[in-house]
Amino acid sequence: MNVLIIGSGAREHAMAWASAQSERVDAVFVAPGNGGTALMGGKVRNVPLKATDLEALLAFVSDNGIELTVVGPEQPLELGIVDLFRRACKKIVGPTQSAARLESSKVFAKEFMSRHRIPSAGYHVFQDSSSAFDYIASLPSDSYPQVIKASGLCAGKGVIIASCRQEATECISAMFEDRIFGDAANEVVIEDFLQGEEASVFALTDGKEYRLFLTAQDHKRIGDGDTGKNTGGMGAYAPAPLVTPEVMQKVEELVIRPTLAGMAAEGYPYTGFLYVGLMIDHGEPSVVEYNARLGDPETQVVLPLLKSDFVAALQASVDGTLDQVAFEMHRKSAATVVIASGGYPDHYETSKMITIADDVASMDECMVFHAGTSYEGGKLLTAGGRVFSVTALGESLRESIASAYRAVEKISFEGSYNRTDIGAKAL
Ligand code: AMP
Ligand code: GLY
Known about the structure:
Blueprint: E1 2-7, H1 10-20, E2 27-32, H2 35-40, E3 44-46, H3 54-63, E4 66-71, H4 75-78, H5 81-87, E5 92-93, H6 101-104, H7 106-115, E6 123-126, H8 129-138, E7 146-150, E8 159-162, H9 165-177, E9 188-192, E10 197-205, E11 210-212, E12 217-218, E13 221-223, E14 227-230, E15 235-238, H10 245-265, E16 272-281, E17 284-291, H11 299-302, H12 310-319, E18 333-341, E19 355-356, E20 366-370, E21 373-376, E22 379-382, E23 386-394, H13 397-408, E24 411-412, E25 416-417
Helix pairs in contact: 8-9
């Protein structure tokens, strides 16, 4: 069969890598892909179509006998790609536009959790600055930090943690008056700050049944020791020791099952990947956010640890036969280290020449997933903020981290930057 993967990050490179290993797959197309998927060869090739050009993607699927489409990023989901493909009787992995509101509307997600008593931070919703200012003025000074969130999609940048009334006021004014997030901040959520440690749980679901991937921990801040600005994610590891079997049982009982049952009961059954961002405090999980897709960089550790056939599971999720398919994990650990362009997440330069030492390819259980790279005229160049996600597996987390960093040293381009403490917290 032929598979189409939509997106251009390291997450999509990892999905293409996992799909190409499936014996049932003849060809993997990636739209638009990146330098890494361009260089994979074998079954994998890029298609120069944007992830948001839904009509062109549908036409490509019809013209090229694609039997299964997998959506990487959130934007096509918000635009309704799953609805469009289903109307055309094309199989696609992802939630419908209504179901994807769990990610695309934080107001929807908070109200949904409150309707279904899913543990999450207390919150208030605002549609204008004056009521938000009034609310902030009414809060005692010991109620900080408060978390202020644009409701709509902001590429992971729409959340601000205000440590005092002054900061909260500035943030509300930036969102409602200066419109720094545009229409994404037409509605704003102000919620209580949750204490604890974060972990991510990923499920694949057909709307009723679900299967769990291994848990992972992301590193969102740019600097070592979790300092500096938030980024898309600078590294990850899996499994997350924080999510013990007892915590996982609570997550399934209190979050995953009520989420799937609630979405179905409200008339928009949730299908595809469900990413639950959790805060875990003394063994008690609360939902920080839902995402309607797999995480990046978490996918780059979660998929290499999936032992069974990825595409078989995806097909089963679309066919409603998830309970009949193998879903096994390797009993190993994985770590991934993101190499970024200097300056990221602020201004950075691109089109830097990249060199990768030949011996990386022969390193055991090490995968160099590309993100912002392009391959043109025989040259591999940087083309984005996050450039690589270098993954290694190991018998222990310590081993996988050491091995990922050995591979990172073999990749160079002008101005490259990576954190040096990925996974350190878990050791
Ligand atoms: P979100 O986009 O909702 O995932 O928020 C981005 C990041 O902000 C999360 O990964 C957390 O690190 C932090 N965050 C969001 N909401 C809260 C909260 N209620 N309490 C503490 N931290 C939060
Ligand atoms: N790693 C965070 C995300 O994918 O949203």
